[in-house]
Amino acid sequence: MTIRSVLFASSLAILASCTVPQITPRDGTEGAIATRPLKVASWNLEFLAEKDGAGCEPRTDADYAAMRQIVDTLDADVIAFQEAENEAAAARVFNPSRYTIVMEQRPGAASGSCGGKQPQQQFIRQAVGFAIRKGIAFDRNPDVTALQLGNPQLRSGVDVRVRAPGHQPVRLLAVHLKSGCFHGDRAQACGVLQQQVPVLEDWIDRASVGPDRFIVLGDWNRRLAEPADAVWTELDDGSPANADLRLADEGVTPRCDPRYRSFIDHIVFDRRAAGQASGFAETTYASGQKHLSDHCPVSALLAD
């Protein structure tokens, strides 16, 4: 790890691994947005269904209400989310009066039963999207469909350019990569993930020569912070110059599930955004609280 990386990780770790905080919500006005750093976040919602009791993680109305409370307390400006069935499902967690929901256009081809502890339940579509705070302007770029590798079950990336009042524009790519190749290259899923990496690198390289700083965030299904990780090494090659990437969770140990030693949900900054980034945090469930997803939200701050 370079001295630069150590300093960056140290600054991010200050606010790391926090339990759901009691934060005074922003009021949604342009002035409120402009007076604080832009807060970006990511949360895998684990089979979030439109209807109660549906999907591989059947939920009650109370569960949806509790998830919405977490989002309200998180108080992020832009949240990349994964595993939502559709916009109606996402709206049960991201209050439509506070957030605009943008989702990938891939229709998906969910079929079959969930198996395991829920053999009677049926799969639902798992889609990627953004919840963007009302009052923040954004432009939508074409979805990164090449990440699907021609497979309708693989997720595309959602690409937006956010123009928050009082902040420089920032380009955001939400991803949910192939699961099952969390480290190394021997797992069966690694062949698919290894095909997605060049697609992602191509997007990063093209964005690096563009006019806007950028962030790639979501469920990478890969422990990028582990020493000499091959995927991270390939992506963080510093060519072009703005492809000198920074991993927000570098040096931070997750607390969401004690079984796991490092994150698979990541917020990755390009060189330009990295110089303005701080405050990486993991929002964990309170003691005794039901784990409403098998992932916890992660977030970071971006100055203007």
Main features:
single chain, 304 residues, alpha+beta, Deoxyribonuclease I, Chain A, 7-stranded mixed β-sheet, 6-stranded mixed β-sheet, globular, disordered N terminus
Question: Could you walk me through the main structural features you see in this protein, from its secondary elements to its overall organization?
Answer:
It is a single chain. The chain has 304 residues and is an alpha+beta fold. The chain has a single domain, classed as Endonuclease/exonuclease/phosphatase (Deoxyribonuclease I, Chain A, 4-Layer Sandwich), CATH 3.60.10. The strands form three sheets. A seven-stranded mixed sheet has the order 1-14-15-2-3-7-4. It has a six-stranded mixed sheet with strand order 8-9-10-11-13-12. The radius of gyration is 18 Å and the shape is globular. It starts with a helix and ends with a strand.
